[in-house]
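Section 3.1: Structural characterization of target chains.
Under the original work plan, the team committed to producing a structural model for every single-chain target entering the pipeline before any wet-lab resources were allocated. The record below documents one such target. The sequence was received from the expression subgroup and is listed exactly as submitted; it comprises 385 residues.
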Amino acid sequence: MKKTVHFLLINLAIFSICSCQVPNDTSTSDHKSSSQYSDLVNLFERWRSFENPPLHDGAPDYRKATFELRHTKFRELQKELLAIDTSGWAIPEKVDWRIVWAEMNGYDFNDRVLRPWARDPAFYKSLWMERSDVPAHEGPTHHGTLEFWQYEFPLDETSKAKLLKELQAIPSLNKQAESNLTGNAKELWEAGIPTIATQVEDLKGLLLISEISNDPKLAEAVENAVNSTEGFVEWLIKESANKTGESGIGKENYTWYLQNVHLVPLTWEDEVMILKRELARAWSSLKLEEHQNRNLPPLAEANTAEDFEKLTENSIQKFMEFLKDQEILTVKDYFEPALREHRGSFIPKEKRNFFTIGMHIDPLPLYSHFYHWFELAIMDNEPHA
């Protein structure tokens, strides 16, 4: 699937050329390559076109029969990739070959193991009101998502037509989901229900936008999507009583996925060891900080909107000054606006969760984590060639 290979690959691929086995890697050979880089480019374009599934009643088609019908074509593309001789190619070109290889492995892994279209109701969430804090959505998503945050109002005719088409696809996809979801992953099923239920409320919220509610076609499409999603939620709740299986994929599958899709030369056991080590480091660091600050008064919560405004403003300025003054990185003029867009808002104490509790005491730890919004801003303002 299209989200399988993250941007992490770009950093890891060069290293993994030396650390993972590639079936056709003849880079140590002295003979001239019989394959051209243009062969890979051509294959990549055809591969990406194939990876985007066909439509069924206006929605991406994840039916079992469709996957079976397309399987032969996938194997042909995969075989064609493995037949490309990369000997004599420059390292960046070999990296590109490896990334296409990893993407195809990801498609194969989803088809054989993950199968989110059959096991995970959250896969069918269509409406996304806010931008994800990573380049692609976290977790499996289908190919026809409605990224509402990308629309600018008032809508031009092209945008209005696109929005209408995406809204009209939701009932079709929901109907398809009820046939496709044959898996028995209990925890995935239960976690997916509130995700789809949230879509109902988000869809209803669209009707509060006058440009949508005053447009007969858009309003009708939203209403149909609401009714369909409500019915989908009811079906999921009814079926949940029959779900008894595990959601995990097993250590062997996890290791294969790490090494062959994300190109991380580790195993499940390696990851567990690293996580235990980092958890121990985190606890040690926490206890050292607590001891160092043991004589200081406890931090005060911001329990009014005014106090929260002062707290976040001071934290933003302190964070940006730290990055600049300590020469942590070159601070771009669009960094601070990117951070301010996600500074948070005041929440009454009884409604705060883990993250917002901390934000109302000291936002700096969370703001340092928000470095990923800087990365997205870099992608928007200075995209890599």
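The first strand starts at residue 55 and ends at 56.
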